[in-house]
Amino acid sequence: MNNPLLDFTDLPPFDQVQPEHVGPALDDLLSQAQRALETVTHPDFPPTWTTLSLILDVATEKLGRAWGVVSHLNAVADSPALRAAYNEALPRVTEFWTRLGADERLYAKYKAIDAATLNDEQRQAHKNAVRNFVLSGAELKGDAKARFAAIQERQAQLSQKFSENALDATDAFAYYAREDELDGVPDDVKQAALAGAQADGKEGYKLTLKMPCYLPVMQFARSSALRETLYRAYVTRASDQAPEDARAFDNSALIRETLALRREEAQLLGYKNFAEVSLVPKMAESPAQVIAFLRDLARRARPYAEKDVADLRE
To answer: What share of the chain is helix, strand, coil (3-state, %, to 5)?
Structure first.
């Protein structure tokens, strides 16, 4: 079987990828990446930027590209078969990347690279790589390393379930509007909404929370009541604020568990909280600095927002 996920000759052929391609492609690419890892971490392998890149980076780039294609399709072209294929592969992909980032042998190879042999760009990339090893738990030992890996796997599962709930909540919503409620809505949007209602065997115009419908309604509909209906449905998706019949998709428990795991992850790495971990590769120096920046931005923006509100009320 020709597998489009294994074709790296050009841009990804998204339209050719089917759910049955996912498992075999990732089996192959994970095996290649694992062999590359074992090659570069062998004691006799020379610790140079070029040799590591030629072997490991090529293999992991292919894996990352293929998984990126699958992840993108899972986000924008969801189907039961694709979702199942994605969820089957997710633990294996997560396990590999977690193990790669925390591999003490690979970390030692990177630390052994002579920075004097690197150009400016390579030197910065090397500095970032060493930093990322630390953030990936490479310096943890024993139970702490095992727990860190378990946290990464669980967070990947939570992230996927969060996305599924948000998508399912979006798909589950429909509002069948009367024609007089759609004053101002573009004709093409109205025709699509009419066709949607007819396909469901309903009267009126089927409005959904999907962007081709939601955005033009919010932008052009003259009915504030209609805009409020869609806006409230959109901002409360997959939450405990959603209508009772939509709370099967509530993400509140997932958010609480994610926050707890992030705090535990941060403490394993020696930080007070996950905000500090998040800022390590960024320009801001502390969570307090970020909060101060946002509050200053709000203070400066507020007069303009108040003017916009006043203009709307005239």
So the answer is: 75, 0, 25
Indicate the pairing of strand 175-177 with strand 205-207.
antiparallel
Listing DSSP states for 216-229 in one string gives HHHHH---HHHHHH
Buried b (16+ CB within 10 A) or exposed e, 133-163: bbbbbbebeeeebeebbebbeebbbbebebb
The whole-model pTM stands at: 0.87
At 177, is the secondary structure helix, strand, or coil?
Answer: strand
Tens of pLDDT along 209-227?
999 999 999 999 999 999 9
Q: What is the pLDDT of residues 273-295, one digit of tens each?
A: 999 999 999 999 999 999 999 99
Contacts of 96 (CB under 8 A, 6+ apart): 30, 33, 34, 63
Backbone CA torsion sign across 262, 267, 272, 277 = negative
Residues 6+ apart with CB under 8 A from 119: none
Task: Give the H or E element holding residue 39.
Answer: helix 19-40
Counting runs of H as helices and runs of E as strands, what totals does the chain give? Answer: 13, 2
Across the chain, which has 314 residues, the per-10-residue mean pLDDT values are 92 96 97 97 96 96 97 93 96 96 96 95 96 96 96 96 95 96 97 97 97 96 96 96 92 98 98 97 96 98 96 88
Structural domains in the chain? Answer: 4-139 (1.20.1050.40), 174-236 (no CATH)
